[in-house]
Structure formats: structure tokens, C-alpha cells
Design the sequence.
């Protein structure tokens, strides 16, 4: 009866502890599920769930990729002016000859939706790979977060500029953007399913409306050829020769990089693509082939739409209307939809654009929910609750609100940061493909991907120099991820960190034979090869300085550190005898955590907690702690004891640690 008041108030309503428990259960719902099986466009299907045809899955890419038509033509006009179509041609060339070949290779190298970051993680080992992944996650967070806020801001611009919008919505871009972000978060907090069907409907309607707008605009241009001659006259008046025009187009096209924003999403959705019945996890040849169709088709569709929209908006919209506050700013095609087809059609176009831009934010949020749980908890660089969807959604919502307020919901102000995130991911993908081709002995492919890497590097540098906001935002994300990640790693350093402990046959024979004579007595020993005299001296030293029971045999326990940057790993223990000394030789990411895991596994096998004996290590304890955090060794005795204390709260069942 004493616990009842804490659970329920006197009037029968749930008490504070009950409310907290329910909130916690709701927030952490699904924590035990596989991390990539989250709601949203990029969720990984269950093993028994069939994939979808590539052309339907392409629409998941499309909500991110195709939705950039909502703001890309206006950004291109601001960046290149009358040269916008020529700069767009350069962008299309880079898309089809650079980004597309790279991501076709990424699809083959990473066929389960991990993307280019996973390729680099595999190519680079130890802390180098982990730190690079953290940096790339910072840029990926920039890409996806700015996708959320920029898309919502552009949707707000379409709302405000619609002629049927009530007067009280005028100049309400910021609060409308925040409302759209909040609605996005509410959907994910409730649960987001059947994304493919929604995306297919949205993309089909949106592309159809864009084709109608571009077809009518083309008819208008062809019906009044003077528009073309005026455009050509304007180009020749501003630039002395075609060569000068090409040079300027090459210089300004990096500002148009948003037109390539969907490729990383394209490989992220690979688990949804239906492959061949003969596909296996190791060799999903059918899925790779179908995903390549997806990437190629999406790139061709987008390239055509980008070129046509650039021509239409440049020839039909006065340049002054593209500037901040102008009616075409951030909504060039919507401007044409209203001007060419009337307010009713324009309003339908606005609604379609607003919806797909909002859903592009959903796709980006799902991408974040895919990336963070895939890497950070596995590295020990995030708490386990980050494997759950809802707490992460709340974290990302707070970040989206802050970014929106910082940029005042301006599409133009955020475009530089967006382009930076996109280009860094593409640069990393091209570099990963270059290194992979080199390691596989394909010199021609290595040279081709190397050239693409250099082009992306130039594009990125030019973009950063012109608009440093992107690198500033990315730096904030990178620093935040680094600080929180290493803080979490240090905080979680004393966890058990073993997914499983596997003994070979020889190890089990040694353990069972020793267990028949009493509780196991283990001596922790450095894993270098030793002479018979050194082993005997070590045993004599421990027996004289500690309380090893006389008559009980001892087993030497030696740990090899495989990769100290790993956080969790399967620990394999092999047994042997050297100089008639029984040894258990384990492999793990750290010495003390591995010893603790082996001791608990031995306790579970024998039913009796074993004893382990250490020597004190000479040196500064702070230095030893840092060595443990970075290299996985150091002063093993106190750390082993602390790991055991946290892993086994009952002292009677806890293995004993002795130090002499």
C-alpha cells in the first residue's frame, strides 16, 4: 500500500511518477528495434517485406530532388542573371557526367542504403575513419536540416505570395515556416508510414503540373520570338564573346549546386527497391541494377526540367522580380503558373508545391533518423536513447526552429549552407569511389573518378568562398557532434561493450577442467610471447602477493586489442597451452572491458564467480585513463572492477578483482 500514493493521486488521476513512466515509454517506443527500421521515407523494410518497383521508389528521391524546382530557377536567376541557362547547362553536364557515375558506383559499393559515408568508413580504419565519419555526419546534418528549413521556408513563400491568401498572412513567412516544421515533427512523433504511396502521388501531380507550366511557357516564347532575340541581345551587351559567356557560366555554376541535391537520398532508399528473386544480402545484383535505373531516370528527368525551367523563367520573368522581396523570389515557376495559366491553376500549382516541399522536409528528417542511429550509438558516441525515433525528432525540431529564426525563413540566405552540405557529400562519394577503384586495381575508373573528385572540390571551394555561411553552419554541426560524441564516449567507457563472448573448443576444455577443482583463478597477463621462466615467475609473484588459494590451478588471461576505436564487438576467446601453462587469449576493442566480459561469461558457464589477479601499472593515472579511452589499454585493474560493478549490481554474483 505504501507505493500507491506515488502512482495515483487521491482523486484517482495518475500520479507524477506514472505520468513520467508513460512519457518515457512513449518517447522510447521501438528502442529495441533495429536502428534503420524507423518510420519515414528511408525506413528499411523488414526481411519478409517485399520491395517496390524502382519507378515507384524513385518518388522517394523525387520529393527531395524534384522539389528543388520550387526554388532552383529563382536561385539560378539571382546567381547568373541572363546566363542562367548556360550555367544550368554546366550543372547538367556535372550531374550526368559526374554525380550520376559516382552514385551508380556507390549503389554497387553500398547496396543496403548506407551511402557514401559507409564506404569511407570501411576504407579508413581506427580513429581516422571514425573522426571522418563524424565530420561527414556534420555536413550531412547540414544538408538534411537545411533541406527541412529551406523547403518549409519556400513553402511559406508560396503561401504568402498566393493572390487568394488572406491579408493577415502577409509577411508571415517566419511563423508559417515554423508551423510547417512543427507539423512535420508532429507527424513523425505520431508515426509515419506508407511513405512510398504518398510520395508517388505527390511527385506525379507535381511533375505533371510543371510539365504543363513549361509547355505553356514554351508556346508563349515560340509565339513571340522577340523574347529570344531580346535575351540574346542582352547577353551580347553584357559579355564580349561566347567564350566570355562560357567562362562566366563556369564561374557561377557552383551557386546552382542545389540542383543535384537528391543523389544521396537516391542511395538511401535502396532497401526499398525490389530486386531479383536470386538476390542475396551479400550480392543483391538485381537491387543494384534497379537502383541504377532509378538514379539515371531521376537525373535525366531533372536535367530536362532544370534546363527548360531556366530558359522559361529567364526569358519570361523580369530580372528585377527575382530579387529579395520580388514576386518571383523563391517561386519562379509558380510565378509563371499564375501569369500564364491564371490564378486558379496557379493556386493548384502552389498547393502542389507547398505539399511536396513539406514532404521533402519529411524525407530529410527521415534521412537524419537513418544516419544518426546507424553510426553514433555503435561508436558509443551517443546514448542508447538515440536509437529511438521520438527523442531524435524533438532534438532535430529544436535545431530546425533555431535555424529558421537565425535565417528569418529566407530561402536565399539558406541556399549557401544547403549547397555546401550537398557538395561535401558528393565530394566524399567521389573520393570514396576513387579510393575503392584504386584498391580494386581499376586504373581507368580511378582516373575518371579522380577527375570528378577534383571538379567537385573546385565547386565546393568556389561555393564556400562566395557564400561562407554554409561552412559556418556545417562547422557548428560538426563541433556539436564532436563534443557530444566524445563526451558520450567517455561517459559510456565503463559499459560492458561486448555483443557476445565466443569460446573455442580448446578454451572450453581448459575452463571446464579447471572448474572441476574449484572457482576459476585467472591471472591477467600482457599478450606478448613469454618464456617458461617468465610465466612461472608471474604465477609465483601473484601467489606471493595475493590470496590465490593453494592447490588451485591458474589460467592466464591475455587480451589482444583489435581496434580501440570500436565501441562494441564480439569477443572471441581461444585456448591453448604454452610451456604447460593454460592460456585464454581474447580479442576485443579494449583490455579491461574485454576481461570483464570474459569473466562474466565464465561465471555464467561455471555458475561460480571467478577471481582475476592483476599487477599495478607504473605511471600517471591520468595518462593511463587517456590511454584507455584512446588506445584501449592503460591501468586495467580499476577499470575492470568498475565495468564489473556497473554490469553486475549484485556483489555476490560479481567476479572478484585482486591487485598485488
Sequence:
Amino acid at each position: 500500500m505504501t507505493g500507491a500514493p506515488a502512482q495515483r493521486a487521491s482523486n484517482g488521476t495518475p500520479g507524477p511518477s506514472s505520468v513520467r513512466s508513460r512519457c518515457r515509454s512513449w518517447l522510447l517506443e521501438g528502442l529495441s528495434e533495429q536502428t534503420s527500421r524507423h518510420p519515414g521515407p528511408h525506413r528499411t523494410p523488414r526481411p519478409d517485406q517485399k520491395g517496390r518497383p524502382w519507378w515507384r521508389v524513385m518518388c522517394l528521391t523525387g520529393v527531395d530532388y524534384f522539389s528543388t524546382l520550387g526554388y532552383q530557377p529563382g536561385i539560378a536567376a539571382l546567381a547568373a542573371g541572363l546566363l542562367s541557362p548556360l550555367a544550368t547547362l554546366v550543372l547538367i553536364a556535372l550531374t550526368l557526367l559526374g554525380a550520376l557515375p559516382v552514385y551508380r558506383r556507390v549503389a554497387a559499393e553500398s547496396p543496403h542504403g548506407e551511402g557514401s559515408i559507409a564506404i569511407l568508413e570501411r576504407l579508413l580504419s581506427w580513429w581516422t575513419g571514425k573522426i571522418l565519419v563524424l565530420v561527414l555526419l556534420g555536413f550531412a546534418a547540414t544538408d538534411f536540416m537545411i533541406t527541412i528549413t529551406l523547403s518549409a521556408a519556400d513553402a511559406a513563400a508560396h503561401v504568402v505570395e498566393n493572390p487568394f491568401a488572406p491579408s493577415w498572412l502577409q509577411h508571415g513567412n517566419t511563423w508559417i515556416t515554423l508551423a510547417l516544421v512543427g507539423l512535420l515533427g508532429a507527424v513523425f512523433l505520431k508515426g509515419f508510414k506508407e511513405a512510398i504511396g504518398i510520395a508517388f502521388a505527390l511527385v506525379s501531380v507535381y511533375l505533371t503540373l510543371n510539365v504543363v507550366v513549361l509547355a505553356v511557357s514554351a508556346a508563349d516564347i515560340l509565339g513571340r520570338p522577340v523574347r529570344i532575340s531580346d535575351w540574346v541581345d542582352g547577353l551580347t551587351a553584357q559579355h564580349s564573346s561566347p567564350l566570355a559567356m562560357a567562362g562566366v557560366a563556369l564561374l557561377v555554376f557552383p551557386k546552382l549546386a542545389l540542383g543535384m541535391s537528391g543523389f544521396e537520398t537516391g542511395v538511401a532508399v535502396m532497401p526499398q527497391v525490389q530486386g531479383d528473386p536470386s538476390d542475396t544480402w551479400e550480392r543483391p545484383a538485381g537491387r543494384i541494377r534497379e537502383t541504377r535505373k532509378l538514379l539515371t531516370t531521376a537525373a535525366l528527368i531533372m536535367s530536362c526540367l532544370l534546363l527548360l525551367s531556366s530558359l522559361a523563367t529567364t526569358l519570361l520573368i523580369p530580372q528585377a522580380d527575382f530579387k529579395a522581396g520580388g514576386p518571383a523570389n523563391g517561386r519562379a515557376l509558380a510565378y509563371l503558373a499564375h501569369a500564364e495559366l491564371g490564378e486558379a491553376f496557379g493556386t493548384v500549382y502552389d498547393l502542389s508545391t507547398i505539399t511536396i516541399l513539406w514532404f521533402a522536409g519529411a524525407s530529410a528528417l527521415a534521412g537524419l533518423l537513418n544516419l544518426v542511429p546507424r553510426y553514433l550509438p555503435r561508436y558509443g558516441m551517443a546514448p542508447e536513447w538515440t536509437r529511438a525515433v521520438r527523442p531524435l525528432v524533438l532534438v532535430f525540431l529544436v535545431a530546425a526552429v533555431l535555424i529558421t529564426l537565425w535565417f528569418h525563413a529566407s530561402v536565399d540566405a539558406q541556399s549557401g549552407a544547403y549547397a555546401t552540405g550537398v557538395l561535401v557529400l558528393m565530394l566524399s562519394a567521389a573520393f570514396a569511389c576513387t579510393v575503392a577503384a584504386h584498391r580494386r586495381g581499376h586504373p581507368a575508373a580511378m582516373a575518371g573518378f579522380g577527375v570528378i573528385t577534383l571538379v567537385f572540390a573546385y565547386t565546393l571551394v568556389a561555393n564556400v568562398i562566395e557564400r561562407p555561411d554554409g561552412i559556418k553552419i556545417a562547422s557548428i554541426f560538426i563541433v556539436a557532434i564532436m563534443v557530444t560524441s566524445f563526451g558520450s564516449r567517455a561517459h559510456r567507457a565503463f559499459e560492458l561493450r561486448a555483443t557476445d563472448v565466443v569460446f573455442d573448443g580448446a578454451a572450453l576444455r581448459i575452463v571446464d577442467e579447471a572448474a572441476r577443482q574449484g572457482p576459476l583463478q585467472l591471472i591477467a597477463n600482457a599478450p606478448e610471447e613469454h618464456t617458461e621462466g617468465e610465466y612461472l615467475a608471474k604465477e609465483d609473484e601473484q601467489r606471493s602477493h595475493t590470496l590465490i588459494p593453494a592447490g588451485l590451478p591458474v589460467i592466464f588471461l591475455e587480451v589482444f586489442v583489435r581496434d580501440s576505436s570500436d565501441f562494441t564487438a564480439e569477443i572471441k576467446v581461444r585456448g591453448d597451452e604454452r610451456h604447460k601453462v593454460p592460456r585464454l587469449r581474447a580479442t576485443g576493442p579494449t583490455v579491461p572491458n574485454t576481461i570483464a566480459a570474459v569473466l562474466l561469461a565464465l561465471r555464467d558457464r561455471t555458475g561460480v564467480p571467478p577471481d582475476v589477479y592483476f599487477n599495478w601499472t607504473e605511471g600517471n593515472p591520468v595518462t593511463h585513463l587517456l590511454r584507455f579511452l584512446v588506445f584501449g589499454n592503460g591501468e586495467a585493474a580499476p577499470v575492470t572492477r568498475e565495468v564489473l560493478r556497473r554490469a553486475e549490481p549484485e556483489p555476490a554474483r560479481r567476479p572478484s578483482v585482486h591487485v598485488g
